[in-house]
């Protein structure tokens, strides 16, 4: 499995969402998701790039296809996204026109209307995506500019967790109550991810 490439960008076809990367004299063709278009357009031909990759092949299509992503979090989201029935890799690369964090927040908020904005995603498929992925994308929903929140000190956890719940379309009153309950029940929680996971687990149990 090829999981990442570092080499010279030699070709970018925006209409086909295809990039060529030369690694030590071997050129790899990568299918890039639509969300990477701006990042790719900012790269210069002949300069070094690093992309994270996902290799996909099936019995019907045994020749592997390499999908490329500017960030590891986008690769991991793509891997989860294509596991949804009705969402294959070819559809996913063109459907993902919005940042991963935004799509993840729509799914966690069960927002089918927003999901239908994505190319190829109708009402039924939007509902299927939510049914399969809801509750599994907390980390992705908390991404900021493509990077995971890291190194967050304790004094900021409450405020940042509140902001994250508001982004998931909880009301301010609900978010404040949920964060307060989480911090009271589990004072040892040390990150936004821990607080959000605790909140969502309680919600899933109906607590």
Layout of helices and strands:
Elements: E1 4-13, E2 18-23, E3 26-31, H1 37-41, E4 48-56, E5 65-69, H2 72-81, H3 89-95, H4 100-108, H5 112-115, H6 123-133, H7 138-141, H8 154-167, H9 172-185, H10 192-205
Parallel strand pairs: 3-5
Antiparallel strand pairs: 1-2, 1-4, 2-3, 4-5
Helix pairs in contact: 8-9, 8-10, 9-10
**Using only CA atoms, what is the Rg?**
19 Å
Question: Can you give the helix content as a percent range?
Answer: 40-55%
Q: Characterize the biggest β-sheet.
A: 5 strands, mixed, barrel
Structural class: alpha+beta
Provide the CATH top-level class of the largest domain.
Answer: Mainly Alpha
Alpha-carbon distance between the termini? 42 Å
Number of domains: 3
* The named CATH superfamily of the largest domain: 5' to 3' exonuclease, C-terminal subdomain
Q: Order of strands in the sheet with the most strands?
A: 1-2-3-5-4
* Poorly predicted ranges: 145-155
Instruction: Count the E strands.
Output: 5
Which percent range describes the beta-strand content?
15-25%
User: Helix count?
Assistant: 10
